[in-house]
# Entry
Amino acid sequence: MKKFLIPSLSLFSIILTACGLASTKDGLSLDKNKDYTFEDVSNKNGSMSYEIFVRSFYDSDNDGIGDLKGVEAKLPYLYDMGFKTLWLMPIHPSPTYHGYDVSNYYAVNTDLGTLDDFDDLVATAKNYNIDIMIDMVLNHCSIQNPWFRQSYNDYKNGNTDEDSKADWFNWGASGSTYGGVSYECRFDSSMPDFNLDSESLRTEIANICKFWINHGVKGFRLDATLYYYYGNTTKNNAFLKWLEDTCHEYDEDFYMVGECWQSDSTVNSYYNSTCDSFFRFGTSTSGDYSVANLIKGFGTASRIEKYIQNNEKAMKTANSKAYSSYFLSNHDMDRISKNFDETQNKMAASLLCLMPGTPYMYYGEEIQLVGRRETSPDDLSDVKRRLPMIWSKKDKTGECSFPETNRQDLNNTEQVELGVVDRLNEKFSLLKHYKKVINIRNKYPFIKQGVFTSMCDTLDADALYNQDKIMAYKIALDDEYIIVVHNFTSVTQTVTSPGTEILDEINTSRYRPKIVDGKLTIAPYSSVILH
# Structure
């Protein structure tokens, strides 16, 4: 099939109409009568990734629960936004709504669809040159997983046969008890911890990896890597190295990003495992050097720049092929939009999308979806951080409702009214801003592996108006580079230009940047890419 590039949704609709194909109601959904194969224009792993809680995204069968067919239906929208990877939060069978306690690693949760639905999603996404990455939970499983009961029986009966699972869990360790025998469970008694030293369990894990790679998965988000051996960095790194080598046997381009919610020194030490990437929590909403602090006026540009530079250097020293994964918020955090106005959200988006490594965006950030943790102690207290995606203020087709939670507090009066369709019709919406910045990033795929160098000291800015709120940095790889300047202040700034040519500009007002006599003038709350 001949490949062709569709650069915008409007052109997409025109082509469908010209071909006599039925268009969808919102213009953002898949036309099942059409085969799509698009030209890949960037390095996918280094481009923008989109985290999706499938239950909340789009409901294709009107049961109130988002599903895999719903994700597939919205691939035109995700493609048009410029995303190259979709991270699906747990899709395996599980007794909980969040899915982080897996009861069957070889199947799809029936609430979300079937394995055939997953295969369809992967195939269609591949035609759009979008990778599918899934959550892989290897620290623990559900107590309802048949492996747990079999392991208990084998352990209790002293079974050492070839098929014994006696050593798959940490029996005799402190935590909780089952049938009078204690077992390790650091998160919850319903989530027994695996013994990752078990050779037969590792064989099973290798089979799981092969299974999903054979079904087209291109990457894993690894949950709770710190707790594989509970803070034992050496053993954690050894397991991650084994896991990476195992996956690369099946797909040499397979990639993984680890969750290690710890100090930066600990995260940097994990890059010795050669695991491709780890999330940088320090610049997220929860970090001391967070983007939020800078935008809200509590942080300084130079401090955050040096922080990023130092961590990037430490990471590259440990593993020259590694790259960071940056984000603003995720499913375990209060959403960033809660405390930001639209301009502040735009500045956060510009910074996130123009960082080295891989940026991740939590579904709904483009429409300022809000959500915060509730005070109840049960596992549903995070539901409001994972509330339904809003597609349209008027047309509620596909909007999810979480019927299985049976919770009255899901009637969130603080949620936004305007959805994707509404925001696409606004000329200067946050969604349009994200789309512009993501597609600008896609023009410079080298920044995934690029070296980050702080340049804020070269600006020679007026301290009276600047107050260390202008960010300037260079990202370079071999002979390619870009220089990025962000103005986080409410006034136009004129600084010594760190570059000589304006390549791209990201404005939040009608004022455009310019370089005159070696001086860069940049409008309030705007960004510019220089060479």
Observations:
- The CA atoms of residues 333 and 385 lie 7 Å apart.
- The chain has a mean pLDDT of 88.
